[in-house]
Amino acid sequence: MTTPVTPVTPVGNATTHNNKGDLFQSFDVADFPVPSGRDEVWRFVSLRRLRGLHTGEFAQQAPAQVRIDGPSNVIVEQVPASDERLRVAGGPVDRVAAQAWSAAEHGTIITVPADAVLDAPIVVTVTGAGLDATTFATILVETGAHSQATVIVRYEGSGTHADNVNWNIGEGSHVNAVVDTEWARDTVHVGQQSIRVERDATLRHTVAAFGGEIVRLTPRVTFAAPGGDVELSGVYFADAGQYIENRMLVDHSVPNCRSNVLYKGALQGDKNSGLPEARTCWVGDVLIRAAATGTDTYETNRNLVLTDGARADAVPNLEIETGEIAGAGHAATVGRFDEEQLFYLRSRGIPEGEATRLIIRGFFNEVLNHIPVESVRDELIARVAGELEQNNN
Fold first, then answer.
1. Is residue 8 part of a domain?
2. Which residue stretches of 26-167 are H helix?
3. % of residues, the chain, pLDDT over 70
4. Are residues 331 and 354 in the same domain?
5. Does residue 89 share a domain with residue 51?
6. Mean of the pLDDT values across residues 150-178?
7. Exposed, middle or buried: residue 381 (CB in 10 Å: 0-12, 13-18, 19+)?
8. Which of 87, 302, 323, 392 lies at a C-alpha separation of 20 to 30 Å from 71?
9. 274 and 130, same structural domain?
10. 234 and 364 part of one domain
């Protein structure tokens, strides 16, 4: 006797298997319903603070200000938004990313030639158009086979901004990427990053999120062939009135690839400021499909809550469809800093305030010390110190 198969009704914007790696994708904003706070992927952020990016009722659109600086052998093209090359890394999986794609009048393609070894970083600077304006951008960074490059994407100024910054990491290439959201404190930014990794390619991707009122970044990694090696790392620091969300997916669909995720964050609130509480959210999804034998992956998120009036959410998710892997695991913590470390430093004559700052700097340095560009690394270390001085005052 054959058991009848019960039809499966798919949930909105997902496959019949509810696989997070197979979320519905579209470049047309009209294909996505307006999200609500009951939707899982939007449940942490306050939608009313997104200034209409999710509904289409945003302030007047202004042209995106994108400046590219880099070595002379890097190719920079401004192309129509319909250029198929922009779509190589994947499409939007939520309404805001699709809105950014639909509204952008053109895209920017940055190409590193095959076999090129860049002697200086490529710096992409995105500047907000002001508090009363909304900007959208589409950017693709594409590295040729066996090339080596460092790419810094820096955000500055004020405004409301949504974008798709995508990466196509060519065969055997080695890329260091730094995404620095150095926005003014009144800025809202929602960004998706689709990352496609070719055979034997290496990507080191670091996010630094300190500025902005609302910053929500969603990197999504797919492996196109075996041998890919990806590390996603990040640091973030939220004060009263700030909300910072890092939501990522690493989709292992082919054999013998490696990934490692390490994000660290700190929060400090002020109940007397009249501002919303400081909040952060980290969601790490790792999917190992049935064909992805030999996968080696781990993800870690650590959060320090420095004061009252602050809240951190940490949600690691690991989905495994095959047991033939090298290893997989995850860890996430939210808590105060180590009181034993503080006691040790104070017992050596170090004042409590300075001891606290030393502990937190050490907490972040595990991530920051991996940034290959010394000037960027030093700047971020100084920014952490500035946040801690503010907390001490």
1. no
2. 95-103
3. 91
4. no
5. yes
6. 98
7. middle
8. 87
9. yes
10. no
Please, what is the angle between helix 339-347 and helix 352-368, to 10°? 120
**Residue (of 224, 172, 234) closest to 203 by Cα position:** 172
362 has pLDDT over 90: no
Per-residue pLDDT tens for 371-385? 888 888 888 888 887
Q: Is the distance from CB of 275 to CB of 312 less than 8 angstroms?
A: no
Distance CA 13, CA 107 (A): 25
Q: How many domains does the chain have?
A: 2
Whether residue 288 contacts residue 299, with contact meaning beta carbons closer than 8 Å, is answered with: no
- Pick the last residue of a domain from 336, 361, 382: 336
Q: Is the pLDDT of residue 17 over 70?
A: no
Instruction: Give the residue numbers spanning the domain of 37.
Output: 20-336
- Look at residue 191 and tell me if it is in a domain: yes
- Neighbouring CB atoms inside 10 A of 340's CB total 8
> Which value, in Å, is the radius of gyration of the alpha carbons in the chain?
21
Residue 2 resides in a domain: no
Greatest CA separation for the chain: 79
Tell whether 365 and 229 lie within a shared domain. Answer: no
Q: Which one, of 121, 110, 112, 103, lies nearest residue 78 by Cα? A: 110
Residues 228 and 365 in one domain: no
**Spatial contact of 117 and 146, defined as CB atoms under 8 Å apart:** no
- On whether both 342 and 243 belong to a single domain, the answer is no
Q: Tell me, yes or no, whether 59 lies in a domain.
A: yes
Do both 327 and 344 map to the same domain? no
62 token code pair: 């202004």
Asked if 139 contacts 110 with a C-beta cutoff of 8 angstroms, the reply is: yes
Q: Where is the domain boundary, 336, 354, 374?
A: 336
Mean pLDDT within 255-267: 96
